[in-house]
Automatic annotation (TrEMBL):
Residues 51-85, 190-224 are annotated as: Disordered. SUPFAM superfamilies: WD40 repeat-like. InterPro entries: WD40/YVTN_repeat-like_dom_sf, WD40_repeat_dom_sf, WDR19/dyf-2, WDR19_WD40_rpt. Residues 73-84, 197-224 have a biased composition (Polar residues). One of its GO terms (cellular component) is cilium. Pfam families: Beta-prop_WDR19_2nd. This is WDR19 WD40 repeat domain-containing protein. One of its GO terms (biological process) is intraciliary retrograde transport. Residues 91-299 form the WDR19 WD40 repeat domain.
Length: 363
């Protein structure tokens, strides 16, 4: 099951070309339940809407295919739309989005849903979720004119130079991991439809975008990607390979196969802290999970292998990295013998921790 979680939202791939987003509303105050469904499905290159074929769309990619271009194109497909329409059923807290591609990777953040296929990533806006829901509810009424168009879910599509293997999102930034062990951090451009932006300008609403160093505020009436807000990791002078990473509102934290945990500040735009953990455990960290406050990180480690390849891992151990003390503490070890466990403990550590971390919330 392909699943990702952020705060009260959990997203998972519910079919080959549909993503379901559940909104539990238990974090960040009042999160209203929503129901939106998109019935667009791919059928031999044709998009099917309510049983009617439309014009042919761009061909689907298969895993392993790389879009031509060879360079990152951050704003090549900004502001596109995916048609949505109201659901019929009892899914009061669900959004089902037809994504018009078969993603191999998904991630969710405070404002965006990201879907990746090979070297392409689509960013769907979640910020206007309540407005879209209200529109969809009105259109679901029997008295609604048939000619009314369903609400639009905006997205922008970006292409990278190689295969994307990991994504982590904050409200303004995204960290993209590649199959060669590198990581790219950059800001996320606006994904609102042009009609929404025009309406905001007509109503006099303005969006203020703060730079990473907070030296200026500007009215963003034509939002674009901030090209200066990007950086590759690791540093070219450091022969390191990144095995795990996570992004908070203030920090990018990444772990290397060389047994280092590096903390990069988004406000200072530099590495502010490094933790050498080679003396604590042998294997590299292959997964990170942050707490709600962004000051502690659960590290999934395998002490029996020298690399981060999932196929070569056996039983995993769990450690806690504390940001303030810059130390790593042992939480769970698969080597610990529990009384009368009948081999349940090693199986639990090996098979359940990885999936549990996807939806784990802790202080």
């Amino acid at each position: 099951l392909m699943v990702a979680s952020y705060g009260p939202r959990t997203a998972y791939l519910s079919s080959l070309s549909e993503v379901t987003i559940l909104n539990y509303g238990h974090s960040y105050g009042a999160a209203a339940p929503t129901t939106i469904v998109n019935s667009d499905l791919y059928n031999d290159g044709m998009m099917v809407v309510d049983g009617t074929q439309s014009q042919p769309q761009s061909p689907e990619l298969e895993p392993g295919d790389v879009v031509d271009g060879g360079v990152d194109q951050h704003s090549s497909q900004a502001g596109q739309q995916s048609t949505m329409k109201p659901a019929v059923g009892n899914g009061d807290n669900a959004i089902i989005l037809s994504v018009q591609l078969k993603p191999s990777l998904l991630a969710i953040g405070p404002n965006h849903l990201a879907l990746a296929l090979n070297n392409r990533v689509r960013f769907y806006s979640l910020r206007r979720q309540s407005t879209i829901t209200q529109t969809a509810t009105r259109q679901a009424q029997p008295s609604a004119p048939i000619s009314q168009q369903p609400p639009q879910a905006a997205y922008q599509e970006q292409e990278y130079i190689t295969i994307v293997t990991g994504i982590s999102l904050s409200s303004r930034f995204v960290a993209i991991q590649f199959d060669d062990g590198r990581l790219k951090l950059h800001s996320i451009g606006d994904t609102e439809p042009a009609s929404v932006r025009e309406q905001q300008q007509t109503n006099g609403s303005e969006q203020v975008v703060e730079s990473r160093d907070n030296n200026y505020n500007s009215t963003n009436t034509n939002p674009t990607m901030i090209q200066d807000d990007e950086r590759f990791f690791p540093d070219p002078l450091q022969p390191e390979t990144i095995a795990a990473f996570t992004l908070t509102e203030e920090l990018l934290v990444y772990c290397t196969i060389e047994r280092r945990i590096n903390v990069f500040s988004l406000s200072s735009w530099c590495i502010v802290q490094t933790c050498e953990h080679s003396g604590t455990f042998v294997g590299p960290v292959w997964r990170l999970k942050q707490n709600d406050r962004g000051n502690k990180f659960v590290c999934l480690v395998n002490n029996n292998c020298a690399d981060a390849s999932r196929s070569s891992r056996g039983q995993d151990c769990v450690y806690l990295y504390d940001l303030y003390s810059n130390k790593v503490f042992s939480l769970i070890s698969s080597g610990q013998q529990q009384p009368n466990n009948n081999n349940l403990w090693p199986r639990l550590v090996q098979e359940q921790i990885a999936s549990t971390l996807e939806m784990l919330t802790f202080d």
